[in-house]
Amino acid sequence: MKNKLKILESKPHFGIFKLFNNKTVFSVSLCVVFLLCWNTNNAQSAHNITNKKPNVMVILLDDLGYADVGFHKLPASSQVFTPNIDKLATSGITFTNGYVAFSTCGPSRASLLTGRSSSRFGVEENGTSGPPVSEIIVPKIISDQGYRTGAFGKWHLGEADGMLPKDRGFDYYWGDIGYKKDLLMRRIPQPPVWSSNPKPYNETYISDAYTDEVVAFIERNKEQPFFVYLAHNVPHSPFQTTRSLLERIVAERPEWAPVYERMKLEKDKWKGDKYNFGRFKGLDLDQDILRLTYISMILSADDSVGKIVEILEKHNLRDNTLIFFLSDNGAALSRPNDLGGVNLPLRSGKGSVYDGGVRVPFVMSWPGTLKQGEKSDLMVSSMDIFSTTIALAGGSIPKDRVIDGINLMPYLTNEKSGQPHEALFFRRKGRDFWAIRSGNYKWVYNKSKKSKFKDIEPDGGGLYQVGTDWTEVNDLSNASPKIRKNLSEMFLQLTKDLPEPLPQIGNNSEE
Q1: Angle (nearest 5°) at CA 103 between 424 and 69
Q2: What count of other Cβ atoms lies within 10 Å of the Cβ of residue 245?
Q3: Which of 233, 303, 370, 467 has the fewest CB atoms below 10 angstroms from its CB?
Q4: What is the rounded distance in angstroms from the CA atom of residue 307 to the CA atom of residue 311?
Q5: Architecture of domain 426-495
Q6: CA–CA separation, 302 vs 85, rounded Å?
Q7: Which strand (E) or helix (H) includes residue 487?
Q8: Predicted TM-score of the model (pTM)
Q9: How many whole angstroms separate alpha carbon 79 and alpha carbon 378?
Q10: Is the pLDDT of residue 40 over 70?
Q11: Comparing 347 with 29, which gets the higher pLDDT?
């Protein structure tokens, strides 16, 4: 549109024409009026496109390890193949201090969508009833601002009446409710977008189904602002993959070829071109095969990112779309076996309040608005997605409750300086496990008798300078007792009004 306007502006002025009679004058006048109207209308159209409210997309992976993306350039990052995720990171800002509010699936997702630590409404474990209906999630607010909202994939926030995605404010949902743990889609019905051309069994994989539904949603709603919440199941167990994904990993990372050859010999785990690792608990697992399966599952999510960016670019929506990419928590480390993922150099993993459980890959990409290829040390949280999205949509943050999320945009466009958060706290009260980070310091208290991590801290908790000691192993309690005392007091002050955690009514695994 802007190019057309420039062409018009470069035309000769009508004053240079020699006018011989009234007819000529009248004709030229009509042309002037027509072109001025065309110019005005099209300028207005260009203005409307420029000022259209931005689309917002959240792409959430499940149990993705901190080191399991190429853009982090950690030792284990060289084993994975994530070209589209890396490109997304290059097109935006990566946060080295990106956190989620909880280290397990359900509470983490509840916190992301409400902008509140789910400790504020008693959800600290999986297997609870989910966020109460009194809790407000993103689509409830931005729908009033003209947004179409869609949720896709894993929900995990309650399956009772009144708790499903459309009950909570989403206009559209397609995912795995009622059909859990079946990435190979043996039981999950094919998505509506495939109904006119059903795929044969060997060509179905859950990440593709979610992605194709997202693409169709964008196609249907491209003329208005939209919010997409895409929650992939991968690379969470069950560890299931396809021959195509495995062979692409081997082609790009030849060091995996011997492992793939061993996989081919496991005839009982193959059905056609689909591979199911099976039970992952035991002492005799092939850890290399588990790792290869895991990173091939990540590749399916990487394909998803590529396909979504492609459809946005096709419809000239990319520069008007903010994409968040992150994990719901760190990789699962179930001793004696690590479940494929790598959080190193962060300590511990899923279920833990050490950074390996709550510090995750975190990207914001919005070309033309946010800087590209930047690494930021701002301490940000998944809860900030709530406040940032509502601010961009023109909505109002609820005033009748504590909102922990912060609108990040002023900090990323240099309108505000400093840190968005003075502190972030993490609590699993039922397990006597909690922590707080402020500045470069983090205090961790772990007295859990249930802990499978065997990381019992010193009396009063351990103090770590996580800004430099990512491993959280160098306890500074004796060297800096005042800092430890201040952090523990800050934690007590921030959590003094929190309710008791809700009881688990279902599966109490770290799902």
Answers
A1: 100
A2: 25
A3: 467
A4: 6
A5: 2-Layer Sandwich (3.30)
A6: 6
A7: helix 481-495
A8: 0.89
A9: 27
A10: no
A11: 347
**Residue 72, token pair as written in the block:** 């982090």
Helices (H) and strands (E) in the chain, counts: 13, 17
Beta bridge partners of 258: none
- pLDDT score for 503: 81
pLDDT value for 338: 79
Rounded distance between C-alpha atoms, residue 508 and residue 501, angstroms: 14
Structure confidence by residue, pLDDT tens digits, 191-211: 999 999 999 999 999 999 999
243-252 and 287-314 helices cross at what angle (nearest 10)?
Answer: 90
173-317-61 Cα angle (round to 5): 45
Residue 493 has which token pair? Answer: 């002050």
Distances (CA, A) of 461 to 191, 326, 443, 458: 49, 29, 7, 5
Point out the least confidently predicted range of 124-133, 360-369, 484-493.
124-133
Given this model, what pLDDT does residue 174 score? 96
HSE-CB at 193 with a 13 A cutoff on CA atoms is 18
Residue written as token pair 């602002």: 225
**pLDDT tops 70 at residue 508:** no
Q: Count Cβ atoms below 10 Å from residue 419 Cβ, excluding itself.
A: 16
At 375, is the secondary structure helix, strand, or coil? strand
**CA distance linking residue 291 with residue 285, whole number of Å:** 11
Question: Which residues on neighbouring strands pair with residue 375, listed in sequence order?
Answer: 94
Alpha-carbon span 348 to 183, nearest angstrom: 26
Overall fold of domain 52-425? Alkaline Phosphatase, subunit A (3.40.720)
Say whether 19 sits in a helix, a strand or coil. coil
Of the candidates 168, 165, 141, which has an alpha carbon nearest to the alpha carbon of residue 155?
165
Is residue 112 within 8 Å of 228, Cβ to Cβ?
no
405 closest CA partner among 390, 426, 394:
390
- The candidate with the shortest Cα–Cα distance to 441, out of 485, 381, 403, 495, is 485
pLDDT score of 285: 87
Distance, CA of 207 to CA of 104 (rounded, Å): 21
Separation between Cα atoms, residue 449 and residue 456, nearest integer Å:
9
How far are the Cα atoms of 291, 322, 344, 403 from residue 76, in angstroms, in the given order?
A: 11, 28, 8, 36
pLDDT tens per residue across span 462-473: 999 998 999 999
Q: 91 versus 41: which is more confidently predicted?
A: 91
Share of the chain above pLDDT 90, in %: 76
